[in-house]
């Protein structure tokens, strides 16, 4: 954020005109006390406060300059945390505001306040299907993380494989089961993920799953099929060919691995060609041994 977003001239001008910007190091000076006061849980965090130090809004994580300016403008025009609290209190039927407020509670770690709002949004009588699904998926995530039982997330993925939220759920499950070392569940979730419109065309995910299969000595034919899918989708992506080389080498198919790495060198830009060239050289040396 400091090097890219805050350094952007448009962001700098915008903040100077609309706010009194202050950069605080969480570990130095008054940083620890401020972090505790406002319950900062992750870095970077941007806090918007009024003249009395009352929190108006917060943002976590990285945002590119245009998105950052748009987000702050929305807050200044009446979309802040406190504004949403008032909107929802005045009009409980405003489900869009209820959803936005729930997500802000989640950002603050106030899950017990987010839960009833998400229940309201996820109600089957909600006429806005996409909004209802957004409420349901976040409710499922909250419940799964709270109980440690990830099956509701799997159930959502199976029920709504074409939902715009399916890829996020799939990746979360894949990561959680990978960390737990549960290969059976990793494969089950990955197969569901590949059927989604987004991840079924995501060459990085396809390559990652293929690599997982060969690293765990599982379904070598499926691993090769996934690699072929990735190459077909992105024939000019050197990273895809490089991943293919890794998979073929792990499977003992050295000539295919060499061909794939040669293709990585051919398709690489000038800045990456040397890197793939060194990897190709190592493969050729392996063949010569």
Question: How would you characterize the overall build of this protein?
Answer:
The protein is mostly helical. The protein has 4 domains: 1-78, 3-Layer(aba) Sandwich (Glutaredoxin), CATH 3.40.30.10; 80-147, Serine Threonine Protein Phosphatase 5, Tetratricopeptide repeat, CATH 1.25.40; 150-201, no CATH class; 221-289, Serine Threonine Protein Phosphatase 5, Tetratricopeptide repeat. The chain is 67% helix and 4% strand. The protein has helices spanning 9-18, 31-38, 65-79, 81-90, 95-107, 111-121, 129-147, 151-159, 166-180, 183-194, 203-215, 220-233, 238-250, 254-267, 270-288; strands spanning 45-49, 55-60. It has a two-stranded antiparallel ribbon. Helix 8 (151-159) packs antiparallel against helix 9 (166-180) and helix 9 runs antiparallel to helix 10. The chain is globular, with a radius of gyration of 24 Å. The relative contact order is 0.05.
Short key terms for the protein model shown above:
single chain; 289 residues; mainly alpha; Glutaredoxin; two-stranded antiparallel ribbon; 15 helices; 2 strands
Any idea how many domains?
4
Strand portion = under 5%
The averaged pLDDT comes out at 87
Please give the largest β-sheet.
2 strands, antiparallel
Name the overall outline: globular
Order of helix and strand elements from N to C terminus: HHEEHHHHHHHHHHHHH
- Topology-level CATH name of the largest domain: Glutaredoxin
Low-confidence stretches: none
Q: In CATH, what is the class of the largest domain? A: Alpha Beta
The CATH homologous superfamily of the largest domain: Glutaredoxin
């Amino acid at each position: 954020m400091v090097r890219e977003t805050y350094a952007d001239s448009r962001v700098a001008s915008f903040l100077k005109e609309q706010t009194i910007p202050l950069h605080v190091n969480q570990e130095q000076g008054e940083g620890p006390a401020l972090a505790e006061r406002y319950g900062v849980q992750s870095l970077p965090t941007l806090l918007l406060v009024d003249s009395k130090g009352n929190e108006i809004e917060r943002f976590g994580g990285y945002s590119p300059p245009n998105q950052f300016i748009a987000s702050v403008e929305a807050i200044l025009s009446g979309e802040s945390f406190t504004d949403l609290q008032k909107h929802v209190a005045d009009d409980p039927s405003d489900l869009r505001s209820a959803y936005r407020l729930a997500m802000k509670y989640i950002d603050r770690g106030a899950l017990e306040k987010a839960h009833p709002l998400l229940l309201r949004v996820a109600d089957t009588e909600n006429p806005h299907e996409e909004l209802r699904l957004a409420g349901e998926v976040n409710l499922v995530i909250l419940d799964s993380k709270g109980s440690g039982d990830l099956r509701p997330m799997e159930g959502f993925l199976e029920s709504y494989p074409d939902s715009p939220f399916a890829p996020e759920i799939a990746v979360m499950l894949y990561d959680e089961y990978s960390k737990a070392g549960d290969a059976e569940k990793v494969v089950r979730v990955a197969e569901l993920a590949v059927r989604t419109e987004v991840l079924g065309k995501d060459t990085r995910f396809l390559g990652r799953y293929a690599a997982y299969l060969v690293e765990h000595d599982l379904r070598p034919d499926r691993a090769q099929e996934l690699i072929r899918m990735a190459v077909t989708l992105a024939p000019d992506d050197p990273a895809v060919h490089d991943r293919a080389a890794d998979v073929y080498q792990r499977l003992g198919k050295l000539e295919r691995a060499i061909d794939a790495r040669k293709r990585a060198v051919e398709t690489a830009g000038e800045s990456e060609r040397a890197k793939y060239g060194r990897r190709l050289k190592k493969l050729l040396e392996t063949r010569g041994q």
